[in-house]
Design brief:
Layout (H helix, E strand, L loop, with lengths): L7 E2 L8 E4 L4 E4 L4 E2 L13 E7 L14 E3 L2 E5 L5 E5 L5 E5 L17 E4 L4 E7 L2 E6 L5 E6 L13 E2 L5 E3 L2 E4 L2 E2 L10 E5 L5 E5 L22 E2 L7 E3 L4 E5 L3 E2 L16 E6 L5 E6 L15 E7 L2 E9 L5 E5 L9 E5 L13 E5 L20 H12 L15 E3 L13 E2 L5 E7 L3 E3 L1 E3 L9 H8 L1 H4 L22 H10 L12 H13 L20 E3 L3 E2 L14 E7 L5 E6 L21 E4 L3 E4 L7 E6 L5 E6 L9 E5 L2 E10 L5 E9 L2
Length: about 700
């Protein structure tokens, strides 16, 4: 951030943005994850010490504290695990103000926020936060609420059936806040409109229909009137703004339901696309669809990076987008033309009843993917003979093929998995060197489709749970923690009323089930609490306006060995530095470790969630690793580890780098919860 002489990275969720705050007015851009500060550099980074620590004292169960702190004029703004917004003194970490939208009440379900937005006209200033289904505008000086907008309104649907969240902070353009949203991944799901809100009033100024309506471009890539019943196609991962051009770049996700698309036959524009929109009006300038008729949840998983690349001796303004499958697309900002070669390939076709998968898909030829592309027997774990034997047996019972091998009844290996490959932390670009940095996961998942009941007559709490909940929480209610928690003994944590309320309004990726009606919601809650199987009657949920989808899934299942380690050979996580002028890798190293395996597998790598920051001081700062709770600093040119420290919990967020009163700080949220204990602290480091 440039404020007087300040440059800072802030950011987001699925993004890490940085802010430029000049003497005139702040401008948000999510293009680099780069800091021009260099007080902390290669020569002195080993001297970093704890400068301050703020402990939120929130309840940490199932924490998702992924917020990249925002620094403005001596204040650090951030969110806590319970989604309080806090303002902290940038030099000491002292709490200045605290906004609690829940007023202390306990909230069930995981809560997620990856960043905030700021706006000022020189007289008044605002902090914008997405919390639950609302967008809040707060006075930046006091934390007092100015207005609140309900994100479920204005979507052309029954808002009582919708789950809509704002996990990424979006971008500010003049007097508008432009945002995407997180919506449910199964039906009923909200459509993923990209919307601009007036910063002064919270009123909607424009909306772009990511599922085209009659007369709009792309309408013919869907069944007739699909916009009325399907959902998703949402820019949950964050946006990037080219303020000079007045263009916002929006990467979108898949359509709902993610894994079976009989009710959305066609290419499904603008799902899995990069969209360039006029920031003033929301008008489409260009688009590029990377996955047609997605059946693998291959969302664009992070906000794009606005970069420059050298082509034919000149600099070209470009937008770079990482993918879950481990590729990087690089587009000309003005035309949308890919700046590296790619190919259209014939892909295996689905044999699921009613499905019509796309016959051809696209894959970049350069740069080479930063994650392995296909799981084969030679890549199965050899950690122990017993582990190898167990995973080999399961592997041979499943389908495994190249990218775009379709989902199946027996189970299809998805590699890289549903989280990527590339994930919401996104990439960092260094304008000094042209190097692009991205952390990656190497985890396989197994996707298995299962029939759903279509009986619209009598039902029990158990049958309703099986139909609507078991796909994520599994038939035995064990879940796939931490993303989808176990519901076994849920009565120890939540009351019947709390369970019903969560079912009614939805949470995280969970859709809202208000349309089932009070009796059926109560029946599900009763089954979860006591095993009640009382039969009830009433109208069935009509997910597409006509009938329940024929197939669901049996859960989000990571492919693990019997001891809970990844079923593939290491590395299980990597860091990658890629020259986007040439497409060549500068370096690639294992990233992360399992502390208990360091003697036998010192370079195992681990799952990692969160992004990094590259600096003019020659450094690349990143935490992200789920098992070792470390924040690390690497030499940005070589990948050599120069410094590391242990955090109170895993730093599954993106660091911020800022300068205040002549001192440079690196601050990270330590929330954990994705493989180890949860936490709720912000920790800042500086030179002595």
């Amino acid at each position: 951030m440039r404020n007087c002489s300040l440059l800072l990275l802030i950011g987001a969720c699925l993004i890490c943005t940085y802010v430029t705050a000049g003497p005139d007015k702040p401008t948000y851009r999510s293009d680099n994850h780069y800091s021009a500060l260099k007080q902390i550099n290669r020569e002195n980074v080993a001297q970093l010490k704890l400068a301050w620590q703020f402990d939120s004292h929130d309840e940490y169960e199932r924490s998702e504290m992924e917020c990249n702190p925002l620094f403005i004029d001596g204040v650090v703004y951030a969110t806590t695990p319970r989604l309080r917004v806090v303002a902290l003194d940038a030099g000491t970490g002292k709490l200045l103000w605290d906004f609690d939208p829940h007023k202390g009440e306990r909230r069930s379900g995981k809560q997620r926020n990856r960043g905030l937005n700021y706006w000022s006209d020189g007289v008044t200033s605002r902090i914008f936060a997405g919390i639950d289904e609302f967008l809040y505008a707060l006075d930046a000086r006091t934390g007092k609420q100015i207005w609140r907008a309900d994100l479920t309104k204005g979507l052309g649907r029954d808002d009582q059936q919708l789950m809509v969240r704002l996990t990424s902070p979006g971008v500010v353009y003049h007097d508008m806040l432009i945002v995407g949203s997180l919506v449910a991944e199964d039906l009923p799901a909200a459509p993923g409109f990209i919307r601009a809100f007036d910063v002064g009033t919270g009123k909607i100024r424009w909306a772009f229909h990511t599922i085209p309506q009659p007369g709009e471009f792309g309408y013919d890539t869907w069944p007739k009137n699909a916009y009325r019943y399907t959902g998703g196609v949402n820019a949950w991962a964050g946006l990037a703004l080219d303020e000079k051009r007045g263009v916002v770049y929006a990467p979108t996700g898949s359509a709902a339901f993610d894994f079976y698309g009989a009710n959305r036959v066609g290419n499904d524009l603008f799902a899995n696309s990069m969209l360039a929109l006029k920031a003033d009006t929301g008008e489409r300038l260009w688009h590029f669809q990377a996955v047609r008729h997605d059946l693998w949840d291959r969302d664009f998983p992070a906000a794009p990076n606005l970069i420059q690349v050298r082509r034919d001796g000149r600099l070209v303004d470009a937008v770079a987008q990482i993918t879950k499958s481990g590729f990087i697309w690089v587009f000309d900002r003005d035309t949308g033309k890919p700046l590296f070669p790619y190919q259209e390939i014939a892909v295996p076709q689905s044999d699921m009843d009613g499905e019509a998968s796309a016959p051809k898909q696209l894959l970049p030829l350069e740069p080479a993917p930063f994650a392995r592309q296909q799981l084969s027997e030679d890549l199965l774990t050899n950690r122990t003979p017993e582990a190898h034997t167990a995973v080999l047996q399961r592997f041979r019972q499943s389908r495994s093929g190249p990218q775009f091998t379709p989902p199946s009844r027996e189970g299809t290996v998805i590699f890289p998995g549903f989280d990527g490959g590339g994930e919401w932390g996104g990439g960092a670009w260094d304008p000094e060197t042209g190097l692009f940095y991205v952390n990656s996961n190497e985890m396989a998942w197994i996707l298995r489709l299962v029939p759903r009941s279509t009986d619209s007559g009598a039902a029990t709490g158990q049958s309703l749970y099986t139909e609507h909940c078991s796909g994520c929480h599994r038939p035995d209610r064990s879940g796939t923690p931490p993303e989808f928690p176990s519901l076994v003994d849920i009565g120890r944590r939540h009351s019947r009323d709390e369970i019903v309320a969560t079912l009614r309004r939805g949470a995280s990726r969970m859709p809202a089930f208000a349309s089932l009606g009070p009796a059926r919601l109560d029946a599900i809650a009763g089954y979860l609490l006591t095993g009640e199987t009382k039969e009830i009657t009433g109208p069935q949920l009509e997910a597409k306006g006509q009938e329940v989808m024929k197939y669901g899934m049996d859960g989000y299942n990571k492919f693990l060995d019997p001891d809970g380690y990844p079923a593939v050979t290491p590395p299980w996580g990597t860091l990658n530095a890629i020259n986007l002028n040439t497409g060549e890798y500068a370096w690639k190293i294992p990233f992360g470790e399992y502390p208990e395996l360091t003697k036998t597998m010192p370079d195992s790598g681990s799952e990692n969630y969160g992004g990094g920051v590259v600096t003019a001081g020659g450094l690349y700062f990143i935490a992200a690793t789920t098992r070792d709770n470390k924040l690390r600093a690497f030499d940005k040119l070589t990948g050599k580890l120069l410094w590391q420290t242990i955090l109170p919990a895993a730093g599954n967020a993106t660091p911020a780098v800022y300068e205040w009163k002549g001192r440079e700080y690196v601050v990270i949220g330590a929330g954990g919860g994705k493989g180890g204990p949860s936490g709720g602290s912000y920790v800042a480091y500086a030179l002595p």
